[in-house]
Amino acid sequence: MISDVLTKRPRHYNAGDYIMHQGDVGEYAYFIEEGQVEIVLQKQDGSSQIIGTRGPGTIIGEMAIIDNEPRTASVRATNTCKVLEISREDFHRRLSGSDAVLQTIMQVILTRYRDTLARIDTISEKRGFPSPEEIEREYVLEHNAVESIKIANEFKEALENGDLRLHYQPIIDLSTNDITGFEALMRWEHPDRGFVSPGVFIPIAEDTGLIVSASTWALNEACRALKRIENSTGWKDCLGMSVNFSSTDFASDDFVDNVYNTLSTTDVAAHQLTLEITERILMQQPENANKTLEMCRKAGMKIAIDDFGTGYSSLSYLHSFPIDILKIDRSFVVDMMKKESSLELVRSIIGLGQNLKMSIVAEGVEKKEEADTLKFLGCERAQGYYFAKPLPEEEIIALLKSWDNTKT
Length: 408
Ligand code: C2E
Ligand code: CA
Ligand code: CA
What we know:
Elements lengths: L1 H4 L5 E3 L4 E3 L7 E7 L2 E6 L5 E7 L4 E2 L13 E4 L3 E7 H9 L3 H28 L4 H30 L2 E10 L5 E12 L3 E3 L1 H11 L2 H23 L6 E5 L2 H5 L3 H12 L6 E6 H6 L1 H14 L2 E7 L8 H4 L4 E4 L1 H7 L3 H16 L3 E4 L5 H9 L4 E2 L10 H10 L6
Parallel strand pairs: 10-12, 12-13, 13-14, 14-15, 15-16, 16-17
Antiparallel strand pairs: 1-8, 2-7, 3-6, 3-8, 4-5, 4-7, 9-10, 9-17, 10-11
Helix pairs in contact: 3-4, 4-5, 6-8, 6-15, 8-10, 12-13
The protein binds ligand C2E and calcium ion (CA) (2 copies).
């Protein structure tokens, strides 16, 4: 606890009291132990604007102990606050007494911080005082950089300790209402943070290269689960498994070998596996991707383009790569019932698939009307909350056992 090491007497503020003033040179940062504050920016025209709030566990005014510049905003208590002071001397004394790793990391963060301040200066020279949004955005970026390092370390641990899970979302044949297979989606239940969205940890895993071992794990686990599901339900050889891959996976030399090995050790037939990739991979590393995909296709696996329609608009790549499936992005399905242009787009993608002999899967189907419209337009398969959410293996087994294709 930070309050255990900051031994000075806490300072108390009442609602409306200013803890610091814009333009003053400050000697202290403050750790907020109780209460809430608002950050107020005084503009050149004399008006002021609240650009953010901070509550217990956060620090305000930290720039002062990093350099000698005037405060860039004022901070005012919005209710009764208890804060602990951290002086510049105290901060530097603690830093010089810490171990080499902490010192180096702090050095990197401080350098970035100074760089951010310098950039804000440049912006203000060019265009007058920075807008509140600019200051807030810089703060968020800085905050995110530190947060990302933390998440990356914790994700690595989760991967090593076996704390990641997969959920499986059924993919439905719209003409028969049968479950044709599943998409494996990674789940991370963090002991303190709770459920962390893949939208947060996947990009971080991609940036740090951790995605390669995460994907290896996911492929292996998805194939094993498929076998267990088949054995428990008797649905044999008719179910497929789709696994998501990132560009970093594709860049690795042993990608294809790994996939082959997993298929043979888990005894899953190649035709049951679909590799989901995005258009970005094909654009970023066309030669490598083509070679890799050709090998996978020759072995009998299927290739799906995920989030189709959201990435690069050039369609010429569709001819050059061995693609089997286009997955219509959820955003088009959502808009399709409201906007004629989205409906036309979905119709065109389905037509494109039919002409190029590719199969179409629509994502994010939440309503019956959406499923009916897609079926009417000739879309073969769909997935979405309307049919089933991504579910853990036991629930998938129960769902298959009770699945009644006349009901959906
Ligand atoms: P995605 O591949 O496009 O996966 C579909 C996402 O849509 C999933 O989000 C799924 O839970 C969500 N979804 C499905 N049906 C509905 C619906 O009806 N309504 C709504 N609102 N959402 C629906 P999720 O699980 O949060 O995953 C987000 C993204 O994270 C995935 O998007 C994928 O890009 C990435 N991801 C997840 N697991 C993996 C993985 O194992 N490897 C890689 N490389 N990426 C993964
Ligand atoms: Ca996907
Ligand atoms: Ca998708």
